[in-house]
Amino acid sequence: MQHKANLACVIALATIGSSFAQTNTATEPALLPPVTVIGERPALHQPATIAAGVVAGDMFERGGHDNTRALTAIAPNTSLFDGNNQRTPRFSLRGFRENNFLIGEPTVALYVDDMPFVDVASRGLPLYDVEQAEFYRGPQGTLFGANGIGGVMNIRTVQPGNVWHGHATAGYGSYDEQSYQVGISGPVAKDKLALGLSGLFSSQDGFVRNLTTGTRADDRETLSGRATLSWTPTDRWDISLTLAGERYRDGFIPTYYKTAFFPPGTSDESMFRVNRNIDGYNDTDAFSQAIRVGYDAENFKVISVTTHRNWEQDLLQDFDFTGLELRNGFSRPEVETWSQEIRIQSPDTGEKVKWLGGIFFADTRINSDSGSDEFTPIELFPGFVSGPPTTFRTLATSEGQTYAGFGQATWSVTEKLDLVGGLRLNHDVRAINRSKSVSSPTSTFGPFTNTFGVYDTDKDFTHLTPKLGAAWHFNKDVLGYISFSGGYQSGGFNSATDDPVQSKFDPARSWNYEAGLKSDWADHCFSANLAFFYTDTQDYQVYRLNGADPTQAYLQNAECATTYGAELEFSARPAAGWEFTGGIGYTHAEYDRYFDPINGANLNGKTISFVPEFTGNIAGQYRFPFGLYARVEVQALGDYFLTEDNTAKQSALGLLNARIGYDAKHWGIYIFGRNMLDKEYAANALDLRYALQPDQIVLQPGNPATFGVAITARF
User: Fold this and answer.
1) Domain with 67 in it
2) If you write DSSP's letter for every residue of 314-341 in order, what string do you get?
3) Contact yes or no for 20/301 (Cβ under 8 A)
4) pLDDT digit string (tens) for 82-115?
5) What is the pLDDT of residue 73?
6) What is the pTM of this model?
7) Among 43, 94, 307, 472, which one is least packed by beta carbons within 10 Å?
């Protein structure tokens, strides 16, 4: 038991990739510093000049952080908000955040078992059979093929090995939630071939009462599966094939529109008591395939990862956000991505210079079919009335290719001093083919269709980003570092405007300065990491609606934005059975110079929306010697603005979570609660204000209090 406790608080101090099995993480080849570990399992080694944290796999069990949407505040200055629906979460990290409408490039690069997710749509994943998740804050383009201007999230699932083991979990909770999870893995041919299978099914009734239809509107259903075949033909080769799929069937997307423009009985009463003339639906399907080939030579290691992914969604919702039949909206995006990443790195030896290099290619095609059906007559121009109904539809095909070369090296000048340098060259090709139409079976002159806003254009972007850093080992327990790096977020095209000139947006480029301390003492049972950062960004990307014409929207570039802040992470095991972990972050992010020419708005000095002033995650756990355990966790977010003009704000909030359980060798049982104090808050907001509805800020609520119980069997 004590040995297990020691492992649980290990803070890694070894060199990169202590075994070839660990090389699926693109880590910096350097003497590695302490890292905060949340949970009960040891972390992989982490790089010296990067603020990084690790969350162990037990934190992703049911009642914990069981999907990417639930990872808010799990690391300092890391938040996730709903996109235009709960299956498309959007990241906010160190002042960089993504928009609601699936336009543009990710600010955070997501990897799952070395498979990159290079679009902003398809990252709403259930998390199960997770070994650990790693959070790298700040741009990491010299270490990873997929680039994020804010950072990288690297998730690793449990891989099959030489011992057969399995588990099955069944759970029941609030709102008739049912969850079933199974997994089995082991050798097909010992030391040569291993197979792993896992799957998840869950369903839950809605949190929201639709007063117009009398239904619990936002029911949801998840079906997910994963299969991994691992082949080791020799000691030097490691080859694996992974297949994964997700199927979501959801109803109403929770939204709340507080308005005085519509009469009582047709507008919403509260976040969870709304009026809509239809419940709507949101169906999502995804299928992924990946082949990973690793070779461990005497003087180098090489990894090749080839991936293919399909993702599609079919969404229909009430877009007037009332109980009246005025407007329904639809969206049917389809995403297909191919990617290839090859990394080569120095072996695990005591050489003074360690290095890593790679090339990356991604090809993404996004087909979108979106628009609205209007159920009132519309005078399109004098003397010509359309509908009802009238359908506005935008068809677009966006294509993007990314070519990148990257590398980084660390020179251990002395036992005390490490110097780090790296470069990344990005070449991006972006293209769009787009058209818009308005049609109706009835009008002044009968059925009609008119097509307009047609354009077909493309653009190339090329950028070189550097990385420089230094680490000083004060002693075996304390390390200090400074770093300077460039960040990059590609430009592209936005299909939501009829003007091809206004469709284009430029790349965002950042200069990032960071300094920090990392410490680890008392035989690895105490650690504390501190980081300070300052970021200057040119052409920060912002999504804006046209206030005079709500059918037009733009992804604009703010001329200059500044972000600065601090982060503290800690872990402690002061005595047998006790564990305390935490991460606290502060961020100030504002537009220095930003004039919105479409709306004539001067936003200089405004705080960037959806960047919480602070984040916090504090947890304590005690495990009794006979298997009983209890854990309490608080997730906290500071104030964050819901609009770019800072007229709507979500006040600071804290979410209380807890779990009490019992673990035996072959079974376990636990009860859990999330958001136990039933805090109401906005997990997102859609700023849809325009001249005729100047109050149309639509909130998307976070989940209310939920409680449940689960039982697990394992062998």
Assistant:
1) 2-714
2) EEEEESS-SSSSSEEEEE--EEEEEEEE
3) yes
4) 887 888 899 999 999 998 777 888 999 999 999 9
5) 85
6) 0.90
7) 472
Confidence at residue 5, expressed as pLDDT on a 0 to 100 scale = 37
Torsional class of 639: left (φ above 0), alpha (ψ -120 to 50), beta (otherwise)? beta
Distance (Å, whole) CA 123 – CA 246: 11
Q: What is the pLDDT of residue 328?
A: 95
371: left (phi over 0), alpha (psi -120 to 50) or beta: left
Phi–psi pair at 174, nearest 5 degrees: -55, 150
Per the listing, tokens 């046209």 go with 546
DSSP sequence for 173-214:
ETTTEEEEEEEEEEEEETTTEEEEEEEEEEEE--S-EETTTT
- C-beta separation of 461 from 413 below 8 A: no
- Tokens found for residue 97: 């955040």
pLDDT for res 56: 79
C-alpha 236 chain-centroid distance: 34
Give the burial class of 447: count Cβ atoms within 10 A of its Cβ; 0-12 exposed, 13-18 middle, 19 or more buried: exposed
**pLDDT surpasses 70 at 27:** no
Kindly state the average pLDDT of the residues 535-552: 89
Q: In whole numbers, what is the pLDDT of the chain averaged over residues?
A: 90
E strand segments, 573-666: 578-593, 595-596, 601-602, 614-623, 628-637, 640-641, 649-650, 653-663
Q: What is the mean pLDDT of residues 509-537?
A: 93
Alpha-carbon distance values, 216 to 430, 672, 706 (Å): 42, 23, 16
DSSP state of 67: B
DSSP H or E stretch at residue 7: helix 2-8
- As given in the structure block, the two tokens for residue 9 are 């608080």
Per-residue confidence (pLDDT) for residue 62, from 0 to 100: 64
How many angstroms separate the CA atoms of 369 and 365, rounded?
A: 13
Q: Residue 36: is its pLDDT beyond 50?
A: no
Burial label for 257, CB within 10 Å (0-12, 13-18, 19+), is buried
Question: Structurally, how many domains does the chain consist of?
Answer: 1
Which position has the token pair 């389809």? 334
Query: By mean pLDDT, which of 57-66, 140-149, 232-241, 508-517 is the weakest?
Result: 57-66
Do residues 482 and 469 lie in contact, with contact meaning Cβ atoms separated by under 8 Å? yes
3-state secondary structure of 426: strand
Task: Find the distance separating the first CA and the last CA of the chain, reported in whole Å.
Answer: 19
Tell the residue number behind the tokens 């009246």, with chain if given: 324
Residue 40 is predicted with a pLDDT of: 35
**Domain CATH code at residue 526:** 2.40.170.20
Which structure tokens are listed for 619? 């947890």
